[in-house]
Amino acid sequence: MEFIWILFAFACGLAVKLINLPPLIGFLLAGFLLNYAGLEPSNTLDSLANIGITLMLFSIGLKLHVKDLLKREVWASTLSHMGISTIIFAGIALLLGTLSLPYFGLLDFKTAALLGFALSFSSTVCVMKLLEESSELKTRHGQLSLGILVMQDIVAVIFLVAATGKIPSIWALALFGLLLVRPVINKIVDKAGHGEMLPLTGLFLALGGYELFYLVGVKGDLGALIFGILLASHPKAAEMNKSLMNFKDLFLIGFFLSIGFTALPTLSMVGISLIITLVILAKFALFFLLLTKMKLRGRTSFLSSMILSNYSEFGLIVVALSVANGWLEKEWLVVLALAVSFSFVITSVLYRNVHRMYRKNKDFIRRFESTDCLPEDRFVQPVNSDILVVGLGRVGRGAFESLKGFVGDTVAGMDADRNRINQMQADQENVFYGDGEDADLWERLDTSRIDLVLLALPAAEDTTNVAIQLRKANYTGQIAAIARYQDEREILINSGIDNVFNFYTEAGTGFAEESLALIRPMDNATPS
């Protein structure tokens, strides 16, 4: 049975990838095909799906800082959006009921509001996958989106307590003691080393956090998230996340397959779900208006709203609970499962082109910006810099340090990870915060003095986008970039990049040259 799941997931995932669509769309399709073929899901599939979601929430925690949740643009926009969208969706549902559309006619205000509440959540799984694939987890809009998703998870916990009547155990108060054992957790991670024990430690902490919270009557997923947050400031947090990435992606395939096993839809269910899917336009507009009112830049608001405009797997939990309590008809579970699937497809397709969409419509989007943007969204001009390194990860940081040794302080660094920038600025480094894919940044930045820009970004697509935006902003200097694979080299050259450094091949050449220098003095000393 397990091989059949893998076969369908592989075939459908590869098929959609060949037409340049995200593989998760193929996994959703595989689930519906398996259901149509008459195969029954087993407890194994549910277990894989649950582990995938638990690891994903743990990974989110590793990249999140509590102070980010306390920002007004995070908690205020989340609560406002959920309240307003619940009312809007409930009103639309009641209006459709007056038109005698199937399933809507049986809704009253209470059940319509419940449906609206289920639709107000955004998908943590979908958003996280898209941000990871585009290497935008640490960007301004990436962190904002993750903060909103975490706030939604907190609301979900409160709802489940209220709806089920299951009040957490008195022992739940002891969970605050996790702050006291945080040094012990950090010590365990230190001792895990860098090999196979590191991902195993991550699995242990993620699943252990889930079980601990579940044991005292609190949503287990929240436990995995909290344990991740406790480790967010640990030096090995990024390394642990990378070591868990493949495990998490593999387990999440089970989640996407399980959606297709919810039920087989009828033609009328498909029609109703498509109508509900169209309502994500209202969800996008509401997010965008609220975020711009919070004094966020138009680009940040646009990108965040776009990636959050989908329906959540938690909506299925809300509807399933409502069906079990007799509040909604069981057909709604199928309708919402289809709407969730369709919203995943739409978000996945649109977000891959979101930067291009912003560039084409940036003048219109900027009209909604506040004249007084938040301090975090203001641009900083690098001073007295002839060379700019974009991306200060391991490769970029190494290049930045080497160039400093050659040209001194005339080299500047830029990165979209604010925490990394703050740490380097504390060490008096000439660096500043900025997202390389931000078209506004290159337009407002004076690059006339900069002779060379080094793009040390992990994804070739991101590097290409930055190069195109640099040229459109009339940058006339030289651009150099790194590539991980040989087939990326031509793509990068065609995007306007002057030189591409093959990360693996040329790193080996550099290693050989520096190692050879160890014996050259001996050769020179030998008489000819």
How would you summarize this macromolecular structure in one to three sentences?
With 528 residues, the protein is mainly alpha-helical. The chain has 25 helices and six strands.
Characteristics of this structure?
single chain, 528 residues, mainly alpha, Na+/H+ antiporter like fold, Rossmann fold, 2 domains, six-stranded parallel β-sheet, 25 helices, 6 strands, 5% strand, globular, disordered C terminus, ion transport, antiporter activity, Transporter (CPA2 family), RCK_N
Kindly describe this structure.
The chain has 25 helices and six strands. The chain has 528 residues and is mainly α. The chain folds into two domains: 324 residues, Na+/H+ antiporter like fold, CATH 1.20.1530.20; 140 residues, NAD(P)-binding Rossmann-like Domain (Rossmann fold). The protein has a six-stranded parallel beta sheet, sandwiched between helices. Strand 2, helix 20 and strand 3 form a beta-alpha-beta unit. Helix 3 packs parallel to helix 11 and helix 10 packs across helix 12. The radius of gyration is 25 Å and the shape is globular. The C terminus is likely disordered.
